Known about the structure:
Elements: H1 2-13, H2 25-45, H3 53-85, H4 97-117, H5 125-142, H6 147-153, H7 157-183
Helix pairs in contact: 1-3, 2-4, 2-5, 3-4, 3-7, 4-5, 4-7, 5-7, 6-7
Amino acid sequence: MNRIFHHFIKIYSTVFCIGCVRYFPGSICSLFTSIIFYFFYIFFLKGFSYTNNIQLFFFTLKIFLSLAFWVACSCWIVQIYIKIFNPVEIDSKEIVIDEFIGQFFLNFLCFFIQIFFEIYFDENLILYLTILFFLFRFFDILKPWPIYIIDNNYKNAFSILLDDILAAIFAFIFFISYLLILFQL
């Protein structure tokens, strides 16, 4: 049982061992996440509409509560990973669940743009996911303030995930700005 649990912790924290790839594991995981989100969008979100604002509110609430639960579970699992596998660094390159969550969060935030602004990504979905991928990787690697402060001063499972969520928020702000200029909203 212990061995199975250890394998689960490793597979989850490294996102199916993508984190064990020698070069650019974070970027590969973000790309993998974008591909997963593409199919998630095609099969579950394409054509999503809501009949009233209450339905949209509860859908949004459900998504963000699910994300909060996902982050909390991931913090717990990453903390266990750090204890079991004892990587050299707390935020080891092999822990890529934070990239997965950050990229997925960014992609999902942009799904809400199309609902609120009635901009539909269907025909340019791959282009937009590519832009989001590069924006997320840019902010995740560059780590502007306050991401830099969190990354350097706090070394725990929550800070590992938080810096990627903040990178997603920075990328989201830049993407919104791009759309505002493009569509003159």
